[in-house]
Design brief:
InterPro entries: Cyt_P450 (IPR001128), Cyt_P450_B (IPR002397), Cyt_P450_CS (IPR017972), Cyt_P450_sf (IPR036396)
Shape: globular
CATH class: Mainly Alpha
CATH architecture: Orthogonal Bundle
Oligomer: single chain
Number of helices: 17
Keywords: Heme, Iron, Metal-binding, Monooxygenase, Oxidoreductase
CATH topology: Cytochrome p450
CATH superfamily: Cytochrome P450
Structural class: alpha+beta
Order of helices and strands: EHHEEHEHHHHEHHHHHHHHEEEEHHEEEE
Low-confidence stretches: none
Strand order of the largest sheet: 1-2-3-9-6-4
Protein name: Cytochrome P450
Distance between the termini: 61 Å
Family: Belongs to the cytochrome P450 family.
Helix content: 40-55%
Pfam families: p450
Length: about 400
């Protein structure tokens, strides 16, 4: 096929990716790219793909040739749930789902609100902060650690290790292999001991819940248990850390939208959906064809790796009117595809939404006059992208 080509390292793409993707979509709903060769640009076809069981998790093979250590390969095969194909995927997911359920998460709203207030109180008197280093870097990892029953004194250790683990989102990852491997080794050792403790003395936490959730038919091996816990820690940190920073960045660079939110706090949840639609932190959802399968008059042969480009599909004008406009009142913003869909839909999406809602409401109430106070820096990854530095001048209602 004569498909458009998108180079993620091209200066034009780096400066205006939406325009490049829109131009490519005018030629075809499918593009060749410099990362994960084939990528889908159509929201409708992406939705069909995510529901179709002829497409499955891509497997750890996506990292072949990148210097993976044995431990990294083990984690990719048995811990990274978005990559794991059938049959183990559903078995692992079902156990995690019974322990990590929406009812448990919604019951922790007050804890999340109190944590957001505690972090904000630590810098509010100065009148300034860097949203990422002072808040976003700490908030989601602390929430996940508390849900897992991690002692407070160990949270900084988890923060450092998950930050190194986030380098898995860089391509190529060869320069970061030693840091990733060291982070994984430390996390596996920690969870090995934590699981042993919870088996002997269960608590009211997520680790205890998934130990209890296992059945004769659906049980996790030791390595799957450790890998799943590492993956939930990793996924619960980076995607939310970047997405909340995107949310604040977009609201403050669209001041009328920020004013709408201040005037109507009930828009908070929809503002989060619109942020995930307009500037998704997770920009590629991967699938692999397990059999020959056809979409949009294109036959994908068995084994074909397919990337769903969420920045492109979330900007599809067939679904979203004036998609380039950031509008927190958009009626169908929840159709955004950052969490994937079908059997591989993100298990932590309820947690991410609740966390960001509680944090946004705290910032809107405490700092209605805040604005950006310096240069913003972004991650250099085409897969997981967001602000790494976002200086703010805080403003109160006084």
């Amino acid at each position: 096929m004569d498909l458009p080509f998108i180079d993620f390292a091209d200066p034009e793409y780096l400066s205006d990716p939406v325009r490049v993707l829109q131009r490519a979509r005018q030629q075809s709903w499918l593009a060749r790219t410099s990362v994960f060769e084939l990528q889908v640009l159509s929201h409708r076809i992406a939705a069909e793909m995510m529901r179709n069981r002829m497409l499955d998790g891509p497997g750890a093979e996506i990292y072949h040739g990148q210097g993976f250590t044995p431990l990294m390969s083990k984690y990719a095969r048995e811990g990274m749930l978005p990559l794991i194909p059938e049959p183990p995927h559903d078995r692992i997911r079902n156990v995690l789902r019974r322990g990590f359920n929406p009812r448990m998460i919604l019951g922790q709203r007050k804890m999340m609100q109190d944590l957001a207030i505690e972090l904000v109180d630590s810098f509010s008197a100065s009148g300034r902060c860097d949203l990422v280093s002072d808040f976003s870097h700490h908030y989601p990892i602390t929430v996940v650690c508390r849900l897992m029953g991690i002692p407070p004194q160990d949270i900084d250790l988890f923060n450092r290790r998950t930050t190194d683990l986030s380098l898995l989102g860089r391509f190529p990852i060869d320069p970061w292999v030693s840091r990733i491997d060291a982070a994984l080794s430390g996390l596996y050792d920690y969870f090995r001991e934590l699981v042993r403790q919870r088996q002997e003395e269960p608590g009211e936490d997520f680790v205890s819940a998934i130990i209890e959730a296992q059945t004769v038919e659906e049980t996790l091996t030791e390595d799957e248990m450790f890998g799943a816990l590492v993956n939930l820690l990793f996924a619960g940190q980076d995607t939310t850390r970047f997405q909340f920073s995107w949310l604040i960045y977009q609201l403050l660079t669209h001041p009328r939208q920020w004013e709408r939110l201040i005037a109507d706090p009930g828009l908070a949840q929809n503002a989060i959906e619109e942020s995930m639609r307009h500037t998704p932190s997770q920009r590629i959802v991967l699938r692999r064809a397990v059999r020959d399968v056809e979409f949009g008059d294109v036959v994908f042969r068995t084994g074909t790796l397919i990337g769903i480009n969420t920045l492109a599909t979330n900007m599809d004008p067939e679904v979203f009117d004036s998609p380039e406009i950031f509008d927190i009142g958009r009626s169908n913003a929840s159709k955004q595809q950052i969490f994937g869909g079908g059997a591989h839909a993100c298990l932590g999406q309820v947690l991410a939404r609740v966390e960001m809602t509680e944090a946004l409401q705290v910032f809107a109430e405490r700092f209605p006059k805040m604005d950006i106070a310096g240069e913003v820096h972004f991650t250099p990854s085409p897969v997981l992208l967001g602000p790494e530095q976002l200086p703010l001048r805080l403003g109160t209602s006084a």
